[in-house]
Specification:
This protein is an alpha/beta fold. The chain has 14 helices and 17 strands. The structure holds zinc ion. The site of zinc ion has 5 residues, from loops.
Length: 454
């Protein structure tokens, strides 16, 4: 590379294959990656001779990729794992299972640690998360060291009534949730790994006046708005009945549809909605596994063809971005009716990395491996039988790798995962505390924890 030579390196990986995510030089074989002061300082076949290096790790047979940017999650909803996916709809709308409004701060902390751990272990170096108790969950997830884009779940509907079919708006709820999001943003302002946003829930759970308030706050404080857009038929019908328009049109009319808007799911979008998103520079957050598990597909080929930036997220499903790339590719090909040049492993890999970085406005610092960018990277063990032979690294990564193949993860050059274990937290304790919290919560919801499935 032609970048200036660093004076020394804190860390040097040698003998690795590197998928950079950079168009000019997408792949390096049997190469070296050097880190200085948390930034990538060297990428090349071999380091310059004589360079002082604090730590050298020889990792033959491994593949290094940028950290995955997993932008739309609700880590607390690990509490409905194994159940919610079979109920047909988002947990917050579903009667008979525990709700965010039922969770105590201690339980929230336990579930958030579990969710964040799972995502980190599978290679997510940034997790966007919004839900209730964001003050304590942000703290709990930050303990792991990964990057966060957190928010409170912001809405002015009374969520306790939504599962019973009642959309009752209460300005006091709106004030409380938006104030919470803004207080969180203020508290973490300037933190090098935390980029708060406003988790505006959806166009059906936020009144138009409230959406205008959110738009004003987003613009004056330069905060992203992470929302659900075209997530369900219920949302679409509610919004149409109330406003006579689509959710996308409502976002446009209230000043939200722009480069700061991150629309989660994007299933129920008309061609006109997609054109509006593209014109506005809004981002689509594609959640293919949640969508497909509930029998739905987002029109990603149309979104991509219109020029909308697409990022990926695992949401309430297993936090494995590696597996998710496969879902993104397969669900697009199902819609295209075959394999074509527009939907190849490099495209979904770009969505899982740079797509998220762009959506969050962080494309200059994360999302690919380039000199000067943050040293956020994942080391995969490609010596395993399902990853041999290494003819096409991206092909193997997208079609056969799993999050479980992640061996090490670094953020700012700091090891957060070594040998598939988190470095900052006791994984056994995280799992035990989440299991205990789930027993309490499901018990309180009136369903025996061990009740067999009918
Ligand atoms: Zn969501």
């Amino acid at each position: 590379m032609t970048a200036p030579l660093p004076p020394r390196l804190d860390l040097l990986l040698t003998g690795v294959d590197i998928v950079t995510g950079e168009p000019g030089r997408p792949e390096l074989r049997d190469a070296t990656l050097g880190v200085l002061a948390g930034r990538i300082a060297w990428l090349g076949d071999a380091p310059p001779p004589g360079l002082p290096v604090a730590q050298t790790l020889a990792l033959p047979g491994r593949v290094v990729t940028p950290g995955f940017v997993n932008v739309h999650n609700h880590a607390i909803l690990t509490m409905v794992r194994g159940v919610a996916a079979d109920l047909g709809f988002a947990p917050s709308y579903t009667p008979g299972i525990p709700k965010g409004t039922d969770v105590t701060p201690d339980q929230a902390r336990a579930f958030a640690r579990l969710g964040a751990c799972e995502m980190l272990l599978s290679g997510s170096t940034l997790v966007g998360d919004n839900f209730v108790h964001a003050d304590v969950t942000t703290e709990a997830m930050a303990e792991l060291g990964l990057r966060l884009a957190p928010s409170w779940r912001v809405h002015d509907v009374d969520f306790a009534r939504v599962a019973h079919g009642e959309w009752r708006f209460d300005p006091a709820i709106g004030r409380r949730t938006l104030d919470g999001a803004l207080a969180l943003a203020e508290r973490w302002r300037g933190h090098p790994r935390i980029t708060p946003n406003i988790g505006a829930h959806a166009a059906d759970t936020c009144s138009e006046d409230f959406l205008r308030e959110i738009a004003a706050a987003s613009s004056s404080l330069d905060l992203r708005v992470n929302t659900h857009l075209g997530q369900s038929e219920v949302e679409v019908e509610r919004v149409r009945a109330r406003t006579g328009r689509t959710s996308t049109q409502v976002f446009e009319d209230t000043g939200l549809l722009g480069p700061r808007l991150m629309g989660g799911h994007c299933i129920y979008l008309s061609d006109d909605d997609i054109a509006r998103m593209a014109r506005a520079g809004a981002h689509a957050i594609h959640i293919p596994k949640c969508n497909a598990a509930s029998g739905r597909l987002a029109p990603t080929p149309k979104l991509a063809a219109a020029g909308v930036n697409i990022a990926l997220a695992t949401d309430t499903q297993h936090g494995d971005m590696v597996e998710l790339m496969r879902w993104a590719l397969a669900t697009a090909r199902v819609q295209r009716g075959g394999v074509d040049d527009d939907w190849q492993p490099a495209h979904v890999f770009g969505m899982a990395t740079m797509g998220g970085a762009r959506a969050l406005g962080l494309a200059d610092s994360i999302g690919s491996l380039a000199i000067g960018k943050c040293a956020d990277f994942v080391v995969f063990d490609f010596r395993r039988p399902h990853l041999v032979p290494r003819v096409d690294l991206l092909g193997n990564l997208v079609h056969t790798a799993q999050g479980r193949d992640v061996e090490h993860v670094a953020v700012d050059g700091e090891w957060l995962v070594r040998d598939s274990r988190p470095t900052r937290i006791d994984l056994g304790r995280v799992c035990a505390e989440a299991e205990q919290a789930a027993r309490e919560l499901w018990g309180a919801a009136g369903r025996s924890y061990w009740e067999p499935r009918r």
